[in-house]
Amino acid sequence: MQLRDIQGQPVAIHREDYAPPAYWIDTVDLTFDLDPAKTRVLNRMRIRRNADASNQPLRLHGDELNLARVLVDGQGASFRIEGDQLVLENLPDAFELEVFTTCQPAKNTKLMGLFVSQDTFFTQCEAEGFRRITYFLDRPDVMASYSVLMRASKDQYPVLLSNGNLVEEGDLADGRHFAKWVDPFKKPSYLFALVAGKLVAREQRVKGRSGRDHLLQVYVRAGDLDKTEHAMNSLIRSIVWDEARFGLSLDLDRFMIVATSDFNMGAMENKGLNIFNTKYVLANQATATDADYANIESVVGHEYFHNWTGDRVTCRDWFQLSLKEGLTVFRDQEFSQDLCAEASARAVKRIEDVRVLRSVQFPEDAGPMAHPVRPDSYIEISNFYTVTIYEKGAEVVRMMQTLVGREGFAAGMKLYFERHDGQAVTCDDFAQAIADANPHSDLTRLLPQFKRWYSQAGTPRLKARGTYDAAERVYTLHFDQSCPPTPGQSNKDPFVIPVNVGLIGASGRELLATQTLVVTQAGETFDFAGVDEEPVPSILRGFSAPVVLEFDYSDEQLLTLLAHDTDPFNRWEAAQRLGLRAAMAAIDAAPGAGAPVLSNDFIEAMRRVLTDTSLDAAFKELVLTLPSETYIAEQLETVDPQRVHAVREAMRARLATALHAEWQQAFEDNRDTGAYSPDPRSAGRRALAGMALVSLCLAARESGDTVWPGKTLQRFKDAGNMTDRFNALHALVSSGHALAAQALASFHAMFKDEALVIDKWFALQAGAPDRGGDVLPLVRQLMKHPDFSIKNPNRARSVIFSYCSANPGAFHRPDAAGYVFWSDRVIELDAINPQVAARLARGLDRWSKLVEPYRGAAREAIARIAARPDLSKDTLEVVTRALQ
Ligand code: 0A1
Ligand code: ZN
């Protein structure tokens, strides 16, 4: 497979071109002589020709390898290098191939393949990193048995790990030692892993349901052992949950997690040897926030659940990525919900997940990078680890569960593993298994149409309208669905949309409990009989489908839902709709017209929520959080980012001042949560207390009050955990109070040796509200700070991404300086780490919606990147699509 054409332009790979490999690799024996400057890799493979393939050459992938020797059945063999491929012809039907190469881990700033982080060797092979370690058929449908011999200096690399079981270890001459690992399971190359360095482990032995013993280990650097308890507990909870919910047990004697501070993504599910970004492992109450604790639990769960959904059953090709990722996100979301003791906490988790979907995935689905959950083509697969593949993919799985029921879905999973254990399969295979296990379900009846969720990009719009016939006591709901065009797909066929609906009476009584309507036509009508009064419909309860629901609610109806809906998701949604409506009206109003940004009704509704003793703090915090600037921007035809920012800030300020007394009370009521525990209830109280402080500091800014900023500084100093401390710091920084500088300095001094906390320190400043264009100069200054390094992805994200991708009010400057900064950083990062650069390059995806002068300046900045010679195909694909 050639990645660039004759002109050197990257070539797209198409799903329809899939063909099984011409050869299979059955066994792989790897020997590593580990040296940061030059690591030697001896790779002995048993290979056989695929019976279905004709006499094609063997084409092995390679990337930045130095090739020293090639032997076929122990003899020198003729071969050629074509682009990045090692090509051999005239091979026997079955043979042993030996390839000897070297690579340079210390120079590997891409962090793909074998790299060094803080004197420790790590690997990252998904999606196509194994070819940077050795020549191979580096594609997920080639599954082999691996044995790995590692040799290294015992003093510098005392711990030597790979997949599977340690079968032998010992000393060698010259202070070196060795370890041999054998993986009992066949696997694709992207699941290979190796770690070597000075590490320590928290260990725990557990017994599975069947009585099997397992050794669990969490490896970190020596000073971090006290931050591994939560990750270990999360792993144990994951094991217990997967057995209980899906009957899936751990299939290994030993399961290891290793943390590295240099990592492109969150974590990686290598068989038996998960490698994690430290951000998703390390936590203690002094250094990690509640959000960190929750993220660790869900990422540890996610990687563990991949052991079945990804590792035991993997993807046939990378177009099927959502087969493992959508399903595994669904599983980790269900896991986190099931761990919540209370229904309200489960609803909070669902709202948080939907917020991410709507504020990140919906824009992706409406922009130049829009792609189906199962894409049809790509240039660089790393660009397709997207919120569409992950989060929308999870929604597709959730809709299947809604259509077949929870037990039906579990039965479908069972059938999926019965059919496909040990195989590399497709999204079709998965959907077929769920359908076949539920022969009488709507999913099975509608399967070909349902699968449009895999093939059609774009977020469907569902327009609903209701009529009430008082004489007949019938309420009628009519739906019209449509889906906007996306790149390469101008016309869409109707989707299967499960719509959970309930009906509420004007007084708040529930007239009809939740029913699932299945909308399949472009236009469709449903009647509800025996409805005693004109109801307020509660539509799309629990966000039962990833669509934009349009219903012409009156403010009064939304207030009814906010006060009375039995579905907490739609209660929250009613407040979001009211907030969004207020924002749109203020954006449309002539600037400076003097109209209040929030109606009294809205403020009073928020007051009622804040003071309602029956509601959880976490839920209140979500209801009182206004729709984000990106979410508001998505609803507009054309976007003036400064106007959106100004309006949202004005709304925040109004809520802060109008509810001053209630915020004070909320702070007092929720400030003390006792001994630290990251459970949802205590975390929710801390979140609301933190929001109260932000509001009180913001109100103080408007009124000139110094009491609350002073109290906030005191809270910052006295805090017993990172959540309270960081929330106080955030309140001072985001209100722009003079005390912020002092608090920031002391925060840095307190945590100077804690990289993850210093990331927070950077991110808070780069993400701070802009006051007179002051954030960009600050960001430039932060990049000169001795703690800053652009090579470390977490640090680059904390400064550059926090500014360019998460601070619209500061980034979209009328003088275009933000965009120039962005394009400079994309270019700079591209030479170091193309994956990180390409993510940053997504920052102006929605440029064509901007009003002038932003639109022209943004386009120019993108074109400036696209014009660079030698751009990686990662970044080139992103900017080329943005300009189309
Ligand atoms: N499969 C991992 C995500 C992942 C993908 C690519 C990586 O390197 C470029 C690393 C991790 C997951 O879903 O957790
Ligand atoms: Zn995953």
UniProtKB/TrEMBL annotation:
Q: Which UniProt keywords apply?
A: Aminopeptidase, Hydrolase, Metal-binding, Metalloprotease, Protease, Zinc
| This enzyme's EC code(s) | 3.4.11.2
Q: Under which main EC class is this enzyme filed?
A: hydrolase
Give the Aminopeptidase N-like N-terminal domain ranges: 38-191
Reaction(s) this enzyme catalyzes, per UniProt = Release of an N-terminal amino acid, Xaa-|-Yaa- from a peptide, amide or arylamide. Xaa is preferably Ala, but may be most amino acids including Pro (slow action). When a terminal hydrophobic residue is followed by a prolyl residue, the two may be released as an intact Xaa-Pro dipeptide
User: This protein's superkingdom?
Assistant: Bacteria
The protein, known as? Aminopeptidase N
Q: Say which species the protein is native to.
A: Variovorax dokdonensis
Gene name tied to this protein: pepN
